[in-house]
Specification:
This protein has 213 residues and is of the alpha/beta class. Helix content is 38%, strand content 21%. The chain is built from eight helices and seven strands; from the N terminus they run αααβαβαβαβαβαββ. A hairpin with a 5-residue loop joins strand 6 and strand 7.
């Protein structure tokens, strides 16, 4: 599903700040060399994540779902010098590539990249998070939300990607695939959760923004 006219989308991108040379390189190489490049955040969403990070100036960020590192580097742009970002991904095959990109960035000393199952890693973390970005397996979105919520500071933000799932969440005949059902349940769960206020932004494939009360 196209959520916005392509010409409008192109115009918006042309009137948004450019990405860094490294991010442009990651985007190009991901599309050329990595499976499922659509998973990459891309320029517009990356600039949105960067802008949120600059507004919040988070001291501690958690990312669930690193992929090739694009979104982590966007989120890192708004951290103060003493800030720290933990990013978790289960894909061991991308580890060497991601570590190389992080090492090439200005944030190498601030990013803690971990390969593992986030549901197992998160309970071991002792940090209190200002900002969390969730972009991993959709069937576990609610579980990730429940794991991170107790570790959030009051007023912190949880951002979940792909919550419109190519429009499947509003199809008249609801898709019965597991991911669509999981996202429908997750969106309703956040909508009704007493500990957050939220807005679902129809940007790219949908961003659920939840502020912890």
């Amino acid at each position: 599903m196209e959520f916005i006219d392509r010409d409008i989308q192109r115009y918006a991108e042309q009137h948004s700040s450019p990405s860094s040379a490294l991010l442009t390189k990651i985007e190009r190489e991901t599309h050329l060399q990595v499976l499922r490049p659509r998973m990459l955040s891309g320029h517009m969403q990356g600039r949105i994540l960067s802008m949120y990070s600059h507004m919040l100036r988070p001291l501690c960020i958690l990312e669930i779902g690193t992929y090739t590192g694009y979104s982590a580097l966007c989120l890192a742009e708004g951290m103060p010098a003493e800030g720290r970002l933990i990013t978790i991904d289960v894909n061991e095959e991308l580890e060497e590539r991601v570590r190389a990109y992080i090492a090439e960035s200005p944030y190498a000393q601030q990013i803690d990249y971990r390969v593992g199952n986030a549901l197992e890693v998160i309970p071991q973390l002792e940090e209190t998070f200002d900002l969390v970005f969730v972009d991993a397996d959709k069937s576990n979105y609610q579980a990730y939300f429940d794991r991170v919520l107790p570790k959030m500071r009051r007023g912190g933000f949880i951002i979940a990607d792909n919550v419109l799932w190519s429009g499947k969440v509003v199809e008249e005949v609801k898709s019965t695939d597991r991911d669509t059902r999981a996202l429908l349940a997750f969106n309703q769960y956040v909508q009704e959760h007493p500990q957050v206020e939220n807005v679902l932004m129809p940007v790219r494939d949908g961003l659920m923004i939840a502020r912890v009360l």
